[in-house]
Design a protein that fits this description.
The chain is an all-alpha fold. Helix 1 packs parallel to helix 11 and helix 5 runs parallel beside helix 12. It is globular. The two termini are 21 Å apart. The N terminus is likely disordered. Belongs to the purine-cytosine permease (2.A.39) family. Its main location: membrane. It comes from Liquorilactobacillus capillatus DSM 19910.
């Protein structure tokens, strides 16, 4: 473990050049991707009104936590995983880092699979290959996964400038595509028809399940919040802009996925939640080859960020591993993970299992970090101690076992509450688990460590 001054973890005010507009655009862009469309399609199983209610409630509450983590990044200049050293211990922070590696590899796989579906549709249109689900249809999806994985490796291997270029071009094309898809949808069916549509009983999704689904999707960004906000000089840019940008992005893009999925169900006379992905929607709406190419590009824009986050977290666990090597490792792992839905036979089933995992492991981590900073340490950390062996954040051999025990119990509580029929039908298990985890951590810390470790930065 490093003995160097902890200030090196922190971005100095002179190095902070991210404007409020950049921060807003970053978080709108974070949700301008395939996965957000797909979430909207999955929520169609609630019906339009319930889906929009859940989307607004669960997203807004999730992004309050994004703002809280964002402020810590602004105040300290330290990344989220760097901040977690104060609550989990210097070595204990490897746990949230490892979870960040797995969840961002998972999101990379989700976006890759959705884009691979687009590649398979392209090959069907261009070369007449059978679609996935038909005899011989695996060829197209396997080709798609390999093509997308190569594109992702190119995007991260070319450095941050090419990634930035991909992001800027991608976002413009995505906005155009979303407006185009919206026009096509509302030419096909009216908003009144969409609002009046009823979900077939066998596909109906409970409200609590939907809240947990949306929460898992949104909380995944919270653990990367400070990574961005530490580069801004203004408090509002670190708190208001991430909240507003991420909320606008998720509501806008999930809304498109929602109405497009319902419109296809109305037009075709049958609803299939497995057809909620953008490629199937684009194909059934007759949007053509260009739409599929845009979906492929959005996978590259989203996954450049996902792979960078996974690679950075891996480097935090193995400091001797250079970032470039970490990026290659996570890119290769993500390729293998992308094949899991093919093995399970259903992308939707694999996606729901993944979201359950994200909700179970991330909620308690976020609660612990927030409670530790705001309530235990009254909004201030000793930055010089964040890399210091035997310092105040060293705890027991570098691990704060109170945080570990709280996290394990929080994951267990989530698993139990998720199977409660009352919560399944009402508000879900995620936010209640986060509240319980925060309370447990606060009082266990008070019991074992007494006062705070507050000091001046």
């Amino acid at each position: 473990m490093s003995h160097n001054n902890g200030q090196e973890l922190s971005i100095k005010p002179a190095q902070r050049r991210t404007s409020s507009w950049d921060m807003f655009a970053t978080w709108v862009g974070a949700n301008a991707n395939n996965g957000t469309w797909y979430i909207g399609g999955v929520l169609a199983a609630c019906g339009f009104a319930a889906a929009m209610g859940v989307l607004l409630f669960s997203s807004a509450l999730s992004y309050v936590f994004l703002s809280l983590i964002g402020f810590i990044g602004f105040k300290t200049g330290v990344s989220t995983m760097g901040i977690s050293r104060a609550s989990f211990g210097l070595r204990g922070s490897f746990l949230p880092s490892a979870i960040n590696v797995t969840q961002f590899i998972g999101w990379t796989a989700v976006n890759t699979y959705i884009a691979a579906t687009s590649v398979s549709y392209l090959m069907h249109d261009i070369a007449g290959w059978p679609l996935y689900g038909q005899a011989g249809g695996s060829k197209g999806i396997i080709c798609g996964i390999l093509v997308m994985s190569i594109l992702h490796i190119i995007s991260i291997a070319s450095g941050s400038r090419s990634v930035q270029l991909i992001e800027r071009i991608g976002i413009i094309l995505v906005f155009i595509f979303v407006l185009w898809e919206s026009i096509v949808v509302f030419q096909t069916v009216s908003l009144h028809e969409i609002m009046s549509w009823h979900v077939p009983a066998k596909f109906k999704m409970n409200t609590g399940t939907a809240v947990d689904t949306v929460a898992a999707f949104n909380l995944a960004w919270v653990t990367a919040g400070a990574d961005f906000t530490r580069f801004t000089r203004k408090k509002s840019a670190a708190t208001v802009m991430p909240f507003a940008g991420a909320l606008l992005g998720v509501v806008w893009f999930a809304f498109i996925g929602l109405v497009a999925t319902i419109s296809i169900a109305i037009a075709s006379g049958s609803y299939d939640p497995n057809n909620s992905d953008p490629s199937t929607i684009a194909s059934k709406l007759g949007l053509g080859v260009l739409a599929l190419l845009v979906i492929i590009l959005t996978s590259m824009t989203a996954n450049a960020v996902n792979l960078m986050a996974a690679g950075s977290a891996l480097s935090n666990i193995f400091p001797r591993l250079k970032l470039k090597a970490s990026l290659w490792i996570v890119a290769v792992l993500a390729t293998f993970v992308t094949f899991i839905p093919m093995i399970l036979g259903s992308f939707l089933d694999a996606f729901i299992v993944f979201l359950d995992y994200v909700g179970m492991v991330l909620g308690p981590i976020i609660s612990i970090i927030i409670v530790d900073f705001y309530l235990r340490n009254h909004g201030s950390y000793r930055l010089s101690e964040l890399t210091k062996r035997n310092g105040c954040y060293w705890y027991t051999n570098g691990i704060n076992w109170v945080a570990i025990v709280t996290w394990v119990s929080g994951a267990g509580i989530f698993f139990i509450l998720q199977h409660s029929s009352i919560l399944e039908k009402t508000m879900g298990a995620t936010f209640i688990t986060m509240l319980i985890s925060g309370v447990v951590y606060y009082y266990l810390m008070k019991l074992f460590y007494g006062g705070s470790k507050k000091d001046v930065n």
